[in-house]
Amino acid sequence: MTDYPALKKKVDELAARVWDEEGISARVRKMIKYGIPRKKLDPKEMKANKAKILDHVQLLAEDYNFITKNCAQGTALALFEEFGLGSMEIIKALTPFPGVGGTGEICGGITGSLITFGLYFGTDDTLDVETTNKVISISQKFMAYFEDAVGHLYCSDIIETVILGKRLNPGESEQAMIAFTAEKGFEKCGLPPGLGVRLAAEFIIDSMK
Predict the structure, then answer these.
(1) Which pTM value belongs to this model?
(2) I need a surface site. Which of 55, 154, 184, 186 has the fewest CB within 10 A?
(3) pLDDT for 10-22, tens place per residue?
(4) What b/e string do you get for 178-209 counting C-beta neighbours within 10 Å, with b at 16 or more?
(5) Residue 24 backbone dihedrals phi, psi, to 5 degrees
């Protein structure tokens, strides 16, 4: 069951946070220049440090959402960095995915996580239907968990009930974007990417053998 008071408390904390814009930007620029560092993941170590990893990846997503002003990119970038996956080309491809083209549809905290699942759980063999079905099953379970944690799957619903308390789709017009920015929408909207990557990272770590 969605804990709306806890979500509101987190939204208020994000709105009041002093962001290290220079430091966050520098980290992103480094990945733009050199790529996402690859990692050799030790399942035993990952499981032992699971709580610490989940806290870290959540903070990364909040930071990257704030600095990119793009929840899908911020989500994927945090997961890519944490697990040594993907590329900045994929991050670029996620440019139009906040609220699916700014329409207020599926949250970027979901789409950024799902593309990570494709990279981690998927296969280069696009004819491998069994693996495809497995990834889809994991994705559906993740989305159910996300909806339970955040209350909704759609960007517009999350903004209305969790982030701002009113209906406002920043992608619908320049005026709407100005209003969203003025109400610290990008700061507050670190919540869905943060919770999304926390759930996604937990799915990945729990699957390790």
Answers:
(1) 0.96
(2) 55
(3) 999 999 999 999 9
(4) eebeebbbbbbbbbbbbbbbbbbbbbbbeeee
(5) -65, -45
CA distance 103 to 105: 5
Q: How many of the other CB atoms lie within 10 Å of CB of 106?
A: 18
- pLDDT, tens digit (0-9, with 9 covering 90-100), for 150-166: 999 999 999 999 999 99
106 backbone dihedrals φ, ψ, rounded to 5°? -55, 135
Q: What average pLDDT does range 181-206 have in this prediction?
A: 97
Q: Looking at the predicted structure, is the pLDDT value of residue 57 above 90?
A: yes
Q: How far, in Å, CA of 16 to CA of 103, rounded?
A: 27
- 175/49 Cα distance (integer angstroms): 44
Average pLDDT over residues 168-197: 95
Domain that includes residue 130, residue range: 4-207
